[in-house]
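re: the backbone from monday

yeah here it is again, tokenized this time
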């Protein structure tokens, strides 16, 4: 059955999101720079637990996964990812041993790169895997609708119906991302940490920054006489609106 919030479109696929699970910051920065230069979006996880959390939350198109990760090693992360679905995974390792390659392939890795590597080669392998896995994916325009709210994710336009009239919401990029994130799962409570990773620029690291953006979003909605959006859940975070 077709998702009522998603309609077919002839527009091209959005740039793929690559999750880089790598604990060595210098290597991660190099990969981020090369991938972004090639037009891909990136997100970084510095340990195994964070990699799994970001995979669950962001649904990346591909994961570059270091074998020797703190908290959970790459094999355990890969095994868990395979229980969730078929997200493409390219393993990164400093161990040039056949046993490691065989383990990765047995657990379902799509490719395998040995350190030290040429980052341009890694980008080429990423693009090759993405071509195989994304070629049959339908291009879509997502339209989110919850109550009187409507968001067009392609055009980055948000509006609300009030007294039979549609009002365009003049939102900053961060406010738009926050509202869209909450609307995707309107009954779910998101922690500040989740919203920080998902919606705020990478330079923002303080969870309380989320509160400031939520407050500004509320003021804009209050001006249209819309109360309680987003709703606070004390001690946890935010959801789209109060429970009915």
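seq for it, each position gets an aa:
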């Amino acid at each position: 059955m077709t998702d009522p919030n998603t309609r077919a479109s002839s527009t091209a696929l959005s740039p793929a999101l690559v999750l880089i699970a790598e604990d060595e910051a210098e290597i991660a920065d190099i990969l981020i720079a090369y991938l972004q230069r090639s037009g891909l979006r990136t997100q970084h996880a510095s340990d195994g637990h964070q990699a799994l959390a970001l995979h669950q939350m962001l649904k990346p198109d591909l994961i570059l996964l270091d074998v020797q990760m703190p908290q959970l090693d790459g094999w355990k992360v890969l095994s868990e990812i395979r229980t969730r679905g078929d997200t493409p995974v390219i393993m990164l390792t400093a161990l040039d041993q056949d046993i490691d390659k065989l383990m990765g392939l047995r657990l379902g890795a799509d490719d395998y790169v040995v350190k030290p590597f040429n980052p341009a080669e890694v980008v080429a392998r990423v693009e090759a895997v993405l071509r195989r896995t994304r070629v049959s994916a339908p291009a879509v325009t997502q339209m989110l609708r919850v109550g009187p709210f409507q968001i067009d994710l392609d055009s980055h336009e948000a509006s609300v119906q009030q007294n039979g009239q549609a009002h365009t919401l003049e939102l900053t990029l961060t406010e738009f991302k926050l509202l869209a994130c909450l609307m995707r799962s309107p009954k779910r409570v998101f922690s500040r940490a989740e919203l920080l990773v998902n919606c705020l620029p990478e330079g923002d690291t303080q969870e309380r920054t989320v509160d400031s953006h939520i407050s500004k979003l509320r003021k804009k909605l209050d001006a249209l006489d819309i109360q309680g959006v987003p709703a606070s859940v004390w001690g946890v975070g935010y959801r789209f609106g109060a429970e009915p």
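Residues 95 and 200 are 36 Å apart (CA to CA). The first strand starts at residue 6 and ends at 8.
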